[in-house]
Amino acid sequence: MNLLVRGATLVDGTGAPARRGDALVVEGRIAALGEVGTTAGARVLDARGLVLAPGFIDLHAHSDLAVLTDPGHLARTTQGITTEVLGQDGLSYAPVDDAALAVLREQLAGWNGVPDLEWDWRTVGEYLDRVDRGAAVNVAYLVPQGTVRAVVVGTQDRPATAAELVRMRELVAAGMADGAFGMSSGLTYVPGMFAGTDELVALCEVVAAAGGFYAPHQRSYGRGALAAYAEVVEVARRSGVALHLTHATMNFAVNAGRAGEFLALVDAALADGLDVTLDTYPYLPGSTTLAAVLPSWASAGGPAAVLQRLRDPEALRRIRYALEVQGSDGCHGVVADWATLQVSGVRDPGLSGIVGATIAQVARARGADPFDVFVDVLRRDRLGTTVLQHVGHEENVRAIMRHPRHCGGSDGLLVGARPHPRAWGTFPRYLGHYVREEGVLGLEECVAHLTSRPARRLGLRDRGVLRPGAVADLVLFDPATVAAGATFQEPREPAVGIPHVLVGGVPVVSDGVRTDAVPGRALRHRTPGRTVAP
Fold this sequence. Notes:
- By secondary structure, this protein is an alpha/beta fold.
- The protein is built from 19 helices and 20 strands.
- The relative contact order is 0.17.
């Protein structure tokens, strides 16, 4: 159906000043902008008082299974997201073999649940084909380095052999040829954390040759944050790969007020000619699994091995020392503060009563030691517990989002009783809280952060902007009311003030109501020698 959007405020995604005008959508693309006369056969949408912008592009999403199992996908469609980038933090479900998939389904239960679906893919291309059966939004994919290592090396803490490195490079190359846009790493998660710098460089050389980018979750966002950022910049320098710093933060007490030091490192890399971008979410707490704070040596070998250590008195003694005295690398080099770890979701229904409480609060209620509670919860929940980690700093969040290479990314987990509200609220929170209420960013500038800049990072030439010929991935929002409906108490509330969202010209939200359309598809990166969809 052709559509004429009449009388909107056009914010085109480039950062240019807003202007009043119309937009004509024909066969899924923008046919005209400005003053558009009466067009026979087009449905007219009165957009007076609304901003028309390109659909938002979420550069860091965790909907890897939700796009397959949840046709409504309300968390994403209702906040104006039309494209999301999956395969994040070095862990996802392609490429896999049967053995690695069995481990990953357990390991990632806290991120994505373990839904009842037909796991009928193994390669990146097969996963993207599965998305093409029908999705609410478009999907771009990153080859997950930890998953690749799980297939080839396993989950043990050891260097890859020369032959294993060759095989990992082959899997990365195959994923890029299948249409992946780059590679991600999770360098605080098993088994990606066991890769050294040289191994990362070798894999990133393959990504660079295919024209992709590297998106690392680095080794620390706490005590070792600047050194960790420096390592991934060095990986980019040595391999020639473009670098995207995912959920770029400076967290924990040791980094309060230190965003400027991080941004100076980014600016120095840019001055040296490196291609660097970054994304953030507009909230203070982080979100991860409770098991992620374990020291790396205790996380080796996969879920079964971890659970065995949690029953070994000597291993528990070492784990306690790492967490409460030394500073666990899983907790970003700082001593665990049990008052900052708030349970957001559990796998075992018998633990539902602790959701919303911190480990310290659970310990007080039980009259127990916090470390003992931590271990008990991990055991009973089979490592499936998710947590909010209250370690952020407002001044750092604001400073980083102002950077000219900044983009938006939600990093939102969709499972659990009380997940982080960023899964439902990131993009309207930028527009409502940080633009309208706080004035940290101007409207046109913020829309550019959420649209054209991530489109450039992905190399999508016909998305992320309003111009004739561009794909009609569009969002209409009310700048006076747009806001995140999701809160920490009610994290699954849809956005306010976003009445219309189109994916490829097809309404997925109309008058604030989700339609039944599933026009999204897998976007495939154009690699040398291939002719594929953009």
